[in-house]
């Protein structure tokens, strides 16, 4: 799979997914849907076998009879196979839609697989930034577990995706500037990044302003993983400093992800040997 954070797959039922859900189960984004060639055959016998549990429930709870529940194997129809892909966090689902008639009712069944968000070892600083970005897009509340230096690289990567030239300063001797952005007109913008749970204090903004002046930079961005105390905003308005809190950076991350992940999903059919049954429903009675 070329979905960096979702290299394993499971039955969609395990994560409470369902066929008509077109929003990502992790980040909530509307997923791209495309019809693909089906590499997985589902026989009439398999369709009927998976239907038995629902059939038992329907008879017990609703009292419906054989005219609604006895499927006709000769009417099996392979309707479509679709790939659903989130271009923000790269989660995916493949689903196969089949239908079969009972004497007076048409039933739909869905088979498929879903990607699994794997756990990252945040002590491992060698994990590709692309993989960390996908993980953060899906689990942004885990941002506090990432090493501060790695989070600086994530911020730098996001702004690069948004069209800036940039470089990261030395971690132990950055002079208060963690990342430097270069605009197309060659103007330099200094960024300070704080991976904090507590709100940023006024004194930290003043210190950042001093770092900008020392480095002869006329504009700055202060990026944090929490929020800013109210006193920070008057200073930022008086000087060319943009304050980017946790929510604002998440929006920037999603925008960068859409630029980088658009039409980037590929899958290897051999890595998915089977599809799992995960739902059935009937169409309106005829």
Task: Give the helix proportion (percent range).
Answer: 25-40%
Q: Over the alpha carbons, how many angstroms does the gyration radius reach?
A: 25 Å
Largest beta-sheet characterization: 6 strands, antiparallel
Low-confidence stretches: 1-5
3D structure, described in words:
β3 and β4 form a beta hairpin. With 286 residues, the protein is α+β, with helices and mostly antiparallel strands. The chain has seven helices and eleven strands. Strands 1, 2, 3, 4, 5 and 11 form a six-stranded antiparallel beta sheet that branches. A five-stranded mixed beta sheet has the order 6-7-8-9-10, with helices on both faces. It starts with 7 loop residues before the first strand and ends with a strand. The protein folds into two domains: 121 residues, no CATH class; 115 residues, Trna Endonuclease, Chain: A, domain 1. This is Restriction endonuclease. GO terms for molecular function: DNA binding; restriction endodeoxyribonuclease activity.
Keywords:
286 residues, alpha+beta, Trna Endonuclease, Chain: A, domain 1, six-stranded antiparallel beta sheet, 7 helices, 11 strands
Short précis:
The chain contains seven helices and eleven strands.
């Amino acid at each position: 799979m070329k979905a960096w954070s979702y290299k394993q797959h499971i039955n969609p039922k395990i994560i409470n997914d369902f066929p008509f859900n077109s929003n990502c189960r992790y980040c909530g984004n509307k997923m791209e849907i495309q019809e693909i060639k089906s590499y997985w055959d589902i026989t009439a016998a398999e369709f009927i076998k998976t239907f038995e549990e629902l059939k038992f429930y329907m008879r017990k709870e609703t009292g419906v009879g054989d005219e609604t529940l006895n499927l006709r194997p000769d009417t099996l129809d392979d309707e479509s196979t679709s790939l659903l892909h989130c271009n923000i966090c790269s989660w995916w689902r493949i689903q196969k839609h089949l239908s079969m008639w009972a004497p007076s009712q048409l039933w739909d069944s869905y088979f498929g697989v879903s990607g699994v968000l794997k756990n990252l070892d945040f002590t491992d600083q060698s994990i590709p930034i692309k993989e960390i970005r996908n993980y953060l897009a899906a689990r942004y509340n885990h941002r506090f577990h990432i090493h501060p230096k790695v989070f600086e690289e994530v911020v730098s990567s996001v702004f690069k995706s948004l069209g800036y030239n940039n470089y990261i300063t030395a971690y132990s001797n950055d002079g208060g500037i963690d990342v430097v952005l270069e605009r197309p007109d060659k103007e330099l913008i200094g960024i300070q990044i704080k991976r904090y749970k507590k709100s940023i204090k006024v004194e930290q903004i003043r210190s950042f302003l001093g770092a900008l002046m020392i480095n002869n930079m006329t504009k700055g961005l202060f990026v944090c993983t929490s929020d800013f105390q109210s006193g920070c905003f008057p200073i930022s308005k008086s000087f060319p400093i943009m304050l980017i809190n946790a929510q604002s950076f998440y929006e920037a991350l999603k925008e960068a992800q859409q630029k980088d992940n658009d039409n980037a999903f590929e899958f290897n059919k051999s890595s998915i040997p089977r599809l799992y049954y995960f739902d059935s429903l009937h169409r309106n009675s005829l």
